Amino acid sequence: MFEAVGERRNVLSDWMFRGAIALVFVLEGTEKFSSDPHSSWVRLFQQIGMGQWFRYLTGAVEVLGSVLVLIPWTVTAGLALLACTMAAATLIVLFVLGRPADSVFPGIFFLGLAAFYWSRRRR
Predict the structure, then answer these.
(1) What are phi and psi of 9, to 5 degrees?
(2) Any long-range contacts for 119-122 (C-beta under 8 Å, 24+ apart)?
(3) Among 9-18, 27-36, 82-91, 110-119, where is mean pLDDT lowest?
(4) Of 12, 30, 32, nearest to 20 (Cα)?
(5) Domain segments of the chain: what residues?
(6) Can you say whether the dihedral through the CA atoms of 100, 64, 31, 28 is positive or negative?
(7) Is 111 buried (19+), middle (13-18) or exposed (0-12) by CB count in 10 A?
(8) What average pLDDT does the structure give for the chain?
(9) The whole model's pTM is what?
(10) DSSP assignment letter at 9
């Protein structure tokens, strides 16, 4: 998965990881556009208290980040956008909602995105 200094990246595994990241975030991002008042996303963003516009913005950012991850020359920007989104989600769930156990999931996504970025850096 992670190669040593000076090793070339495996193009196939790079595309597989990028595709998986894009798939997860496009699915999660588009779920946030649901207008069903009983949707878990609608309730979660009501609890955050910033209004439903924030849910739409978050969904758009996740979909945009997933598209950027698929374009070879914008991978870094996409990973950074998604990592910042997951870092913010972790902090919001932890400090605004006060649910430390629920902040683990976005925190793991943040760490995974950071690790993938780190493995792609040119040395």
Answers:
(1) -70, 145
(2) 119/1, 119/2, 119/3, 120/9, 120/14, 120/75, 120/76, 120/79
(3) 9-18
(4) 12
(5) 11-120
(6) negative
(7) middle
(8) 91
(9) 0.87
(10) P
